[in-house]
Amino acid sequence: MADPVVDFRSDTLTKPSPAMREAMASALVGDDVFDEDPTIHELQAEVAALFGHEAALFAPSGTMANQIALQLAVPRGDELLCDAAAHIVSDEIGAAAALSGISTRTWPAVGAAVDVAAVESMIRPEGFVAVPTRAVAVEQTHNRGGGGVIPLSTLQDLRSVADRYGVHLHCDGARIWHAHVADGVSLAEYGALFDTLSVCLSKGLGAPVGSLVVGSASHIAAARKLRKRLGGGMRQAGILAAAGLYALRNNIARLADDHARARRLAEALAPAGVVDPAQIRTNIVPLDLTKASLDGPAFAAAARERGILTSVLGPRLVRLVTHLDQTGEGIAHAEAVLPTLLA
């Protein structure tokens, strides 16, 4: 195999830059289980303010942040509604059921094209035999939905539905930074629509570790106990929080570069009939190989031989993800090589 030239498997593969490493090395630290780490305090306050919420809590991973938020919202045995391809049900190895006893019911996988009326029709009230719906979760941007951005108007309508039925509205906002850049919606506007959010620092922003749960002061006070129960209490983790602060202050606006590179890749591959460039809004490029000469594993293997790493999400589905560690040379190499594999 040729040495990899460019890695499109995920935006989690970025490595801390020299400047980020310097910030980590100089971070003030304390014991966060005792709530004494000043850099974690700074990170939590900054993220809470960005989203217009009262508080935030640093957690080791996006999965833990999501599960903490779900435990805040849904008592054991009660119901969560979400997209059938949501990270919460597709990529967290059944954590909501295994750890929290949550019954999950899904609407058809539609990515960012959420049908609010259909979601409303699924909400179940209290009843003698029915499992009551306690929360609705959406994903912004939508990973398995090709990085799609749910329109602000759709989220506003979902907020109205949640208020009408008294259910909790959660946002898996691992890549919400991309939606903010792509649509120009402020993080505070997004924050105002949700009871809780989870946001990730290591998908696209370049930090090595960490997500946060964002919500009210009472939610976050309860979340600290849930984090400890899940094994997420950390000690001198200000070193990690410093990386997150650097990422927030330096790497959000540049996400537009990743979006432009994703569109370039889509345009190069469009003649092969595997992607519609008009559908590429952020940094994820799904390749539908249903009518292609190669299936997903064969395409990925051929690309790897040419130094290009991709993710296979299904028999005929491959994903490319752009991120800050890729070079212009690497993108150009992919633009030149990948279409030839489908010729």
UniProtKB/TrEMBL annotation:
Residues 7-288 form the Aromatic amino acid beta-eliminating lyase/threonine aldolase domain. The keyword Transferase does not apply. Pfam families: Beta_elim_lyase. InterPro entries: ArAA_b-elim_lyase/Thr_aldolase, Low_specificity_L-TA-like, PyrdxlP-dep_Trfase, PyrdxlP-dep_Trfase_major, PyrdxlP-dep_Trfase_small. Its cofactor is pyridoxal 5'-phosphate. One of its GO terms (molecular function) is L-allo-threonine aldolase activity. This is Threonine aldolase. GO terms for biological process: glycine biosynthetic process; L-threonine catabolic process. Keywords: Lyase, Pyridoxal phosphate. It comes from the Bacteria. The modification N6-(pyridoxal phosphate)lysine is found at K203. Belongs to the threonine aldolase family. Transmembrane segments: none annotated. One of its GO terms (cellular component) is cytosol.
